[in-house]
Specification:
The complex is a heterodimer of chains A (412) and B (347). By secondary structure, chain A is α/β, with parallel strands linked by helices. Chain A has two domains: 193 residues, Rossmann fold (3-Layer(aba) Sandwich); 149 residues, Rossmann fold (3-Layer(aba) Sandwich), CATH 3.40.50. Helices cover 43% and strands 16% of the residues of chain A. Chain A contains 14 helices and 13 strands. In chain A, the strands form two sheets. In chain A, strands 6, 7, 8, 9, 10, 11, 12 and 13 form an eight-stranded mixed beta sheet that branches. Chain A has a five-stranded parallel beta sheet with strand order 2-1-3-4-5, sandwiched between helices. In chain A, helix 5 links the parallel strand 3 and strand 4. The longest helix of chain A has 29 residues. The N terminus of chain A is likely disordered. Chain B has a single domain, classed as ABC transporter involved in vitamin B12 uptake, BtuC (Orthogonal Bundle). The longest helix of chain B has 27 residues. Chain B is globular. Classes of the chains: A alpha/beta (412), B mainly alpha (347).
């Protein structure tokens, strides 16, 4: 049979069919690769590995913080693993981007807990922390911390397996107000906050705290988050003539506009902020108006060269460029979590959520290597410690203007 | 258009599917839905529930925007009304899950009718702006009616129970969410075999002509808003049972845009389009995340490096669909079917 007759005998394969077969083959291959990949990831967790999962906002509105947190956790995990792990067990960090959306955060949690058995987890928002809480208790294998400092989460009865690596928002207000009361007893204070869950969080308890400290809350102003035109609000502030105005619930806008207009009106009010508006780049990004802007910060800044901060030196060696305060938060969160793991393993206990949390709560006068300037304890869900920093725009630095302030159990 | 499917009766003309083969495929699909919870991991069950909720809401929006031609950016707010209603009833009255869901749907439907009133005077972009304004009002109510909505902290609700079964995991919730979504989709598909559905289509195609034909515009436009919002309300109620925390920030304007994008990508005015669009918009970001994860062994810190790329790819895919297939995924699906059906001839 000639080659030609052989070809004639075959059923012709149309280009369409060939294309469809190609698509089908490619899809099948992709599927197989996908399954293989998933299995590979799932089975790649060595029995002895301790998994640190994370729903991290690497994109979206909170990416500026998520990137820092991610780098901070990565670096601490690297430090631990380079030191031989925890009792010989290596840490494995498994993050996933959430774009700061609750459904994506929960999906990331489900995927990571489906493929691994994490003992440590980082969540990206208050809403996620609240949503995942029942699942966390049901799972029973892990403890969780996150980007949220919401007062609501600082309740060990309601959130027994969660904590925050710093003071909650009410405690931040407490630290600021303590500083105000120490600096200018009987001062007049105003609160300016965004109309969000985040913004409203510390306002009512902050008012009570101010009264307890003998301060007068002369005005509370609420604005849309990120609003630009604040002239009406600034007029309200001018009428109230506070000595201090505390911003909360913002990252940057409308703080610079507020300060700028207040300065133009000749007001001598001193302006303050809380954690998320206190990063170096955020404050310096406000420009000249930032000069003198103060706020509470539970961690030392990246460039702080204090003698008792060897961990900052180590961080600078690992990353020569500036790292944000969100980085410090991620770094310290990972440090505290691994400390809990170490204590649990040293006590010969299983790595369960309740054992890990008990170990975490046993932390007393713990040296963070200078990330926080005083030894810390974690009896509940928060670390009520912070320091007041002030922007020095000439030096392009945040400089401390108070000693470390530690609140007691009552927030006082 | 397919050949060989000539209609010989009005019943055939009104039927949901052209051929018996399609019914058989539908049965296969239902069978897959039935066995899915027994073979899927918690992650895939979570995603299935999320897709189902989004399908329910997108189908509702498709009734309003795809079939009646009224653009709305208030779908998330209507979901919020349903979610808050369900959460409030579950927390304060402990009424049965199905009653709560129907109540959530009805409450959202009533809200939708109210928002739909301007639709008699304005349409297109103007109506879209009116629905955005309504969303802002609802958001304000969610955040400030503290005694009912819990204010900015929102409501944290207990899990629902049906016949003594606690619905606190996706594995259990699947049996609530997926059947309800299936029923809602079947309802929507059948709606357009009725006078009401055809009136919606007539209004979309030319409202003045529809009025000349005897269709009362106010009545049918409000009905369309009510039905669409009812779907959103039930979807919001399912969302509330699924996440169990309802806050004013749970239903942002971006979510409404998500649903509008879903029906555009899927194919407006097509039941299949809403399903495919919602599935596409929910699953593609997850699939892209998996691709990023697969690259992790070869690319250190792929998650951080490629996450922004992933977002851009997702955006590019949507733009690509708008450019190359304006009639959406549903049309692609139909073309694929035609190719199989007519092969070896070209379509």
């Amino acid at each position: 049979m000639t080659e030609e007759t052989q070809r004639q005998g075959e059923r012709p394969v149309s280009p369409l069919r060939r294309r469809l077969l190609g698509y089908a083959a490619a899809t099948a291959l992709a599927g197989l690769l996908g399954l293989a990949g998933q299995n590979q990831i799932g089975s790649a967790q060595a029995a002895e590995e301790i998994v640190f999962g994370g729903s991290i906002p690497l994109t979206g509105v909170f990416a500026f913080a998520g990137e820092g947190v991610h780098a901070g956790i990565q670096d601490w995990v690297q430090i631990v693993n380079e030191g031989g792990g925890i009792e010989g067990r290596m840490l494995r960090y498994e993050p996933e981007d959430t774009a700061y959306k609750v459904d994506a955060s929960v999906a990331a949690f489900k995927r990571i807990t489906s493929q691994f058995q994490p003992n440590l987890y980082y969540g990206d928002s208050t809403a996620f922390s609240k949503t995942i809480n029942p699942e966390l208790e049901r799972n029973g294998r892990m403890i969780m911390a996150g980007a949220s400092f919401a007062t609501e989460l600082n309740d060990p009865d309601l959130f027994p397996l969660q904590f925050m690596a710093g003071p909650d928002y009410t405690e931040m207000f407490g630290i600021l107000l303590r500083h105000v009361a120490d600096t200018q007893p009987g001062a007049r204070v105003a609160f300016v906050y965004s109309d969000t869950e985040f913004g409203r969080d510390p306002i009512e308890p902050g008012r009570e705290r101010a009264e307890a400290l003998g301060l007068e809350v002369v005005e509370t102003i609420v604005t849309p988050p990120g609003s630009v035109d604040v002239s009406t609000e600034v007029l309200k502030l001018r009428r109230a003539r506070p000595d201090y105005a505390i911003f909360h619930g913002y990252v940057q806008a409308p703080i610079p506009e507020f300060i700028s207009q207040a300065r133009q009106m000749g007001m001598e009010t001193r302006f303050m902020g809380t954690f998320w508006s206190m990063d170096h780049t955020v404050v310096m990004g406000m420009g000249e108006v930032a000069d003198g802007f103060m706020g509470v910060m539970p961690y030392r800044y990246y460039y702080d060269e204090a003698a008792d901060a060897p961990m900052l030196e180590r961080i600078r060696e690992m990353r020569p460029e500036y790292q944000s305060t969100a980085y410090m938060q991620g770094f310290l969160t990972a440090m505290l979590m691994t400390e809990a793991v170490e204590r649990t393993l040293a006590a010969g206990q299983d790595l369960t959520g309740s054992n890990l949390k008990a170990a975490l709560n046993s932390i007393e006068d713990f040296d963070t290597g200078g990330i926080i300037g005083v030894p810390i304890s974690l009896p509940g869900n928060s670390i009520p410690v912070g320091r007041i920093y002030q922007a020095d725009t000439a030096a392009q630095k945040m400089v401390p203007v108070s000693d470390w302030i530690r609140l007691d159990q009552t927030g006082g | 258009m397919r050949i060989g499917t000539a209609k010989e009766s009005y019943a055939a003309d009104e039927s949901l599917f052209d051929t018996a083969v399609q019914w058989r495929w539908l049965l296969v699909f239902f069978a897959l839905l039935l066995i899915f919870p027994f073979i899927a991991t918690p992650y895939w069950l979570f995603m299935a529930c999320l897709v189902a909720i989004n399908v329910a809401s997108a189908t509702g929006l498709n009734i309003l925007t795809g079939y009646t031609g009224l653009v709305s950016l208030g779908q998330a707010a209507f979901m919020g009304v349903g979610a808050y209603t369900v959460a409030w009833l579950e927390i304060n009255l402990g009424t049965p899950v199905l009653v709560n869901l129907v109540a959530g749907g009805l409450m959202a439907g009533a809200a939708g009718m109210l928002v739909g009133v301007p639709s008699l005077r304005v349409k297109g972009l103007y109506l879209a702006i009116a629905t955005i304004a309504a969303s802002v009002i609802f958001h304000f109510i969610f955040a400030n009616w503290t005694s009912v909505t819990g204010g900015v902290s929102g409501l944290t609700m207990p899990p629902g129970t049906i016949f003594g079964f606690t619905l606190d995991e996706p594995r259990d919730l699947y049996w609530l969410i997926v059947p309800i979504t299936v029923l809602m989709v079947i309802g929507a598909a059948n709606l357009f075999r009725t006078r009401i559905g055809r009136a919606f289509i007539a209004i979309r195609d030319r409202d003045i002509s529809a009025e000349v034909l005897g269709i009362r515009l106010l009545r049918f436009k409000l009905l369309s808003f009510a039905l669409s919002s009812f779907y959103a309300g039930v979807a919001g109620g399912l969302w509330a049972y699924f996440f169990r925390v309802v806050t004013p920030e749970s239903f942002p304007l971006l979510m409404s845009i998500f649903f509008l994008a879903a029906i555009i990508v899927g194919g407006m005015g097509s039941i299949l389009g809403a399903i495919l669009g919602a599935a596409f918009m929910t699953m593609v970001p997850e699939v892209l995340k998996m691709v990023v994860n697969w690259l992790s062994p070869w690319l250190p810190d792929a998650v951080a490096l490629l996450s922004p790329v992933r977002v851009m790819v997702f955006g590019a895919l949507i733009v690509g669909f708008l450019l190359f297939e304006p009639q959406g995924l549903a049309e692609m699906w139909r073309r694929l079917r035609r190719q199989f059906h007519l092969w070896p001839f070209k379509t």
